[in-house]
UniProtKB/TrEMBL annotation:
Pfam families: PKD_2 (PF16407). Keywords: Signal. Residues 1-22 form the signal peptide. This is PKD-like family protein. InterPro entries: PKD-like. It comes from the Bacteria.
Amino acid sequence: MKKNNCYFITLITLFLFLVSCAKDKGNYTYKNLDSHFVDIDALPKTFVVKQNELVKVNPTNSIEAPTNLAYEWRLVQQSYAPDPSTGTYVNKQLAVTKNLSYKVIEAPGSYLLVLYVTDKSNGGITQMVKMPFTISSYASIGWMVVHGDNTGSDLSIVVNNKLNKLLPAGTDYVQSNVFSETNGAKIQGEVANVYYIDNHWVDVFTKTNDGGVRLGGNDLRKLNSYSEMFINPLPSNNVKFQAYAGWSYNELLINNGDLYFIPQADINVYSKFGVKCFGEDYVAAPFIGTIFNWAYFGVIYDSKHKRFLYIDYDRTVRQFEAPSASAAFDMRNVGKVMVYAEHGFDNRWFCVMQNENNPSSRELYVCKFNVSDDGNRGIAKINISGATELNAAKYFAFGNKGNIMYHATNTKIYQNNYAGNLASTLMYDVSANYPGSVITNMKMFKVNNHPNDGKILFVALTNPTTKSGTLLQIEVNEVSGAFGTIKAYTGFGEISAMNYKSK
């Protein structure tokens, strides 16, 4: 009985306590503890900015936001791995004001711009807003265009949403003369070619005995002269750039008929070219086949003995095996002059070959290096000599998504049906659209894992009278080769080289 009485008294006491609390109006202030202090919809959803760009963000407070708010802006690295060059992880305070004004100085990469808004009157309740923040190099991602004359050249970059999908759809401009802006002077001499290397630098090669220069990928600042790219600097009378290629982290270069090879395994250390590749007597033509199998570290055409050669894992120059009965041709005894070579559809190496001083004899020799040498690496020989104006072609381009081959004279672009009737179809007449201009360069846009890989053909035009250059960005069907929309960019000098910059 006593035990039941205790339970009853306890229940009565609890009931009276709850009733008193419910009726208590007291001298208390009840506030809305909502943490939506700024209007998220009014903030940018994402940022894509360049180094040295000034970023301004002015958030709008929500209608019911309290007045006693504190603000903090931070830049946070998205990757959990530290920066390899500094060993640090970026988590940086940018401002403690409501409005942000910030000049971007961080290295290119993926970050988060984070805004913390704290209600100081209610125990520090905080709203956190995260916005993806991509920093690109001062020298933009885009299509590098080297232009000028035989005394000096500059490097500009075409920037648009087809080349960099992170950009808003309407983005379309030319970042002009980046090289001279950074270095205070133009590149000396006429440029032979330009390349972006995945370790984030740019190689510009010239037709002069200076050879060219290696540039930093962020701002195109000079890093090394051409001679300084070699452990034993080349004397000026031996400087003659002819070709460059790369695969994975490896670089290949042809200078004055000699092939050089160097791995760049450490992105923070630049490794220089050593001695040339030995093993056979050769004079390399100005084209390099890159590998798709570890049996070959690079393939060249020996213009002295008119044969294909390759280098193996220890950089020794070797002959190919004797051909089997099914081989299309003997890689060791071609007997032709190499006019042009480029990797194309199905990872094949397409080589335009002809007899000495006879452009009317042009044929297509096709190699494939997907397996170790078995005597069958010459897989096709196609006689396209009857194609319209092929004997007058100066420029070539091969697609990588279908059997596409373009060849161009001074003023006309043709597509050759090498996989069918061998005929060529006129695709574009420069003289009809740009009277007085001539073609000076042609290159397919081929970038692995890019949404427009194989879908753009760039054609450079120059008017010899005005010395002005025009770049045509031609959308192409990657399978059929048909031309689509053509966009023209002007304001260049004579365009001598062009290529893609991916970071």
